[in-house]
Amino acid sequence: MILMRNKIKEMFDISEIENKIINYALITAAFRKYTTKKKKEIITGSKIILSQVLKLPNSEINEIIFLISQIDKIKNSISSNGEYQRLDIAILLRGIKRKYLNAIFLLCICDEYTSTKSSIISSIDEIELSKIHSKYQTLMTFIHAQKLESISDLKPLIDGKTLKTTLNIKEGKTLGLLLDELIKYQIMNDAVTKESAIEYLHTKIN
């Protein structure tokens, strides 16, 4: 695992917390390869390794566990022809925040490749790493082209109080869903006005 981690560090710009996330990615990949345990059991077993072997504090372990839980969301953000979907990726980035951006995608890519190989975790070669790096760069290029780097900072154009009054709705689940729809509308449209947003949200109520 140390060999694999060092190879990754040579190819990617990795911060301290991301270095620890790589450890977790490799551990998880190993668990998935050699066991038939469910995801929850894999996470439980990995927590033990993170705390007892890697000696990580609980705060860092919790951050890593959160990131690994996002893997399926990332895979679901890729269409059948291998293309990334703007809305899906944008919503995902809002959930994990910018500080985790590089880490979560690197983790996901490492997990995806290593979990499908039959060889031991430390034997992954330079060709395999090149494939991982290529996929990582493709995704980061997509994020840059779609101007999604700061998407986690996007705020609803209309606040909840105004929505309640304008759409004549009560505070609760409906309001939360409409705020989510508003964010999605803003993500998918460049020139959004309050008027166009209200008109769009009316269609969601009706």
Give a written overview of the molecule.
The chain is mostly helical. It contains eleven helices and no strands. The longest helix has 20 residues, at 126-145. The chain is elongated. The relative contact order is 0.11.
> How much of the polypeptide forms β-strand, as a percent range?
under 5%
Helix percent reads 55-70%
Please state the structural category. Answer: mainly alpha
* Series of H and E elements: HHHHHHHHHHH
Mean pLDDT level: 77
With helices defined by DSSP (H or I, 4 residues minimum), what is the helix count?
11
Q: Over the alpha carbons, how many angstroms does the gyration radius reach?
A: 20 Å
Give the tally of β-strands: 0
What are the low-pLDDT stretches, counting only 5+ consecutive residues below 50? 117-123
Outline: elongated
Query: Alpha-carbon distance between the termini?
Result: 55 Å
Write the layout of secondary structure elements.
Blueprint: H1 2-11, H2 16-34, H3 39-52, H4 58-68, H5 71-75, H6 86-96, H7 101-114, H8 126-145, H9 160-167, H10 173-188, H11 194-205
Helix pairs in contact: 1-2, 2-3, 2-4, 2-7, 3-4, 7-8, 10-11
